[in-house]
Amino acid sequence: MSYSSRIRWKIFLVAIGLLFGCSGQQPPRSSPLQATDGRTYNFPADLRGKVVVVSFIYTHCPDICRMTIGRMLEVWEKVGSDTGIVFATVTLDPARDTLGALRYYAAVWGIPLGRWLLLTGTIADVERVHEAFGVVARKSYTERLPSGEEVYFVDHTDAVFLLDRQGVIRDRREGSSLDVAAYAERVQQLAKSE
């Protein structure tokens, strides 16, 4: 099977997973990820008992991720005072998004670390989380600078998810074009209903 056929097959499987996974009652499979708060979380299982807003970004992203994180910050401003709600942002690029890189990203964007977790881990662990949520992240053409540093972008799914207190996905939307007011209301409704 060619590389492009494998990618198409994986995208097909992810789409099927989303169709059935979001409507089912099973939480996404968990994997160990490290957070900027210094803890390791079996993500998302360790956050059960909270309503969790999950987004996916990478720190070198020039466009979509910036729009997504900007909208997530606006949602945070509306619902962040509710201690029953946690924001979790998982990297799409674990090779470059170290804990130090994520802390710097949080400082630049003004992300309130604490109840907002920025998460990374081994490539295998992060890929398991991507797969569990039906997120695709594919490294683009790579160039190597004379210094040896790799330069590349990541083609990826543009999605944010809302998990209920049992860890079940209750909502999936495009992060970069999110209607902030409607989404904040949806998050609050779910937090109040449980």
Give the amount of beta strand, in percent: 15-25%
Taking the alpha carbons of the first and last residues, their distance comes to 46 Å
CATH class: Alpha Beta
* CATH homology-level superfamily: Glutaredoxin
Low-pLDDT parts are 1-23
What's the structural blueprint in terms of helices and strands?
Layout: H1 3-21, E1 31-35, E2 40-43, E3 51-57, H2 64-79, E4 85-91, H3 99-109, E5 116-120, H4 123-133, E6 137-139, E7 143-144, E8 150-151, E9 154-156, E10 160-163, E11 169-173, H5 180-193
Task: Describe this protein's structure.
The protein has about 190 residues and is an alpha+beta fold. It has one domain: Glutaredoxin, CATH 3.40.30. It is built from 5 helices and 11 strands. The chain has helices spanning about 5-20, 65-80, 100-110, 125-135, 180-194, and strands at about 30-35, 40-45, 50-55, 85-90, 115-120, 135-140, 145, 150, 155, 160-165, 170-175. It has a 7-stranded mixed beta sheet with strand order 2-1-5-4-3-10-11. α2 packs across α5. The radius of gyration is 16 Å and the shape is globular. It starts with a helix and ends with a helix. The model is unreliable at about 1-25 (pLDDT under 50).
Short description:
The protein contains 5 helices and 11 strands; from the N terminus they run αβββαβαβαββββββα.
Please supply descriptive tags for the structure shown above.
two-stranded antiparallel sheet, 37% helix, 7-stranded mixed β-sheet, 11 strands, alpha+beta, Glutaredoxin, 194 residues
